[in-house]
Specification:
The chain is built from nine helices and seven strands, in the order βαβαβαβαβααβαααβ. It has helices spanning 14-25, 37-49, 64-78, 101-129, 140-144, 150-170, 188-191, 195-203, 213-222; strands at 5-8, 29-34, 54-58, 83-86, 132-137, 175-182, 235-238. It has a seven-stranded parallel β-sheet, with helices on both faces. The chain is globular, with a radius of gyration of 17 Å.
Length: 246
């Protein structure tokens, strides 16, 4: 596989870290964004200790101006972005009848508007070079919905709508656009949930366990090589069989 420049948003989180490691391990030049300098520096030191080199560029994916500056910063360090993984996301869970405009807007902006903000600055370069990979990290809850997550489910469902439209527009330019929809993954956030609550979640998963960040990273990497060039507009459900829509 040829070495490419990969930009993973939200790369310092649990799933993001695994994606960065997987892509770097495959020989790609990897970058991610950060907002908190101290936390980002600590993360980068740990990655280096683990044997992975990942460039850090400050940027807020929820801001069009900041997102474009982020892309230009990555280009200045590593070169043009060939692989974009839109992974950044937040939750602001509550039932809809109690949801504030801020809770709605923050999730839509970070999880969905960011996909436009990050993809727009890279897509023209990909079209000019006749090669590109854009991968959205959506969610099982964007497919099946989830109590208390109208904002999150709407954003994650919207990500795949973006995927299938962008895939059609750019297929003839050697660019594939796909979605990975993880189920419940054993990240720090999920492991912080009370054990009895986690047990109820696991009871709904046919494989009988939570997924791992590394399994999601594998799903992302599946879409990148030349052998995957005929796969575009797809959604890869990685949820242990919890949701089997097609």
């Amino acid at each position: 596989m040829a070495a490419r420049v990969a930009l993973v948003t939200g790369g310092t989180g649990g799933i993001g870290t695994a994606i960065c490691k997987r892509l770097a391990g495959l020989g790609h030049k990897v970058a991610t964004n950060y907002r908190n300098q101290e936390k980002a520096d600590a993360w980068q030191r740990q990655m280096q200790a683990d044997g992975y080199q990942v460039a850090l560029v400050q940027g807020d994916v929820g801001s069009p101006e900041s997102a474009e500056a982020l892309v230009r910063g990555v280009e200045a360090q590593l070169g043009p972005v060939d692989i974009l993984v839109n992974n950044a996301g937040i939750t602001r869970d509550t039932t809809f009848h109690k949801m504030t405009p801020q809770q709605w807007t923050e999730v839509i902006n970070t999880n969905l508007n960011s996909v436009y903000n990050m993809t727009r600055p890279v897509i023209e370069g990909m079209r000019a070079r006749k090669w590109g990979r854009v991968i959205q990290i959506a969610s099982i809850n964007g497919q099946k919905g989830q109590y208390g997550q109208a904002n999150y489910a709407a954003a994650k469902a919207g990500m795949h709508g973006f995927t299938i439209s962008l895939a059609q527009e750019n297929a003839k330019f050697g660019i594939t656009v796909n979605t990975v929809s993880p189920g419940y993954i054993g990240t720090d956030m999920v492991m912080a949930v009370p054990e009895e609550v986690r047990a109820k979640i696991v009871a709904q998963i046919p494989t009988g366990r939570l997924g791992t960040p590394e399994e999601i990273a594998y799903a992302v990497a599946f879409f990148i090589p030349e052998e995957a060039a005929w796969i575009t507009g797809a959604n890869l459900s990685a949820n242990g069989g919890q949701y089997m829509g097609w």
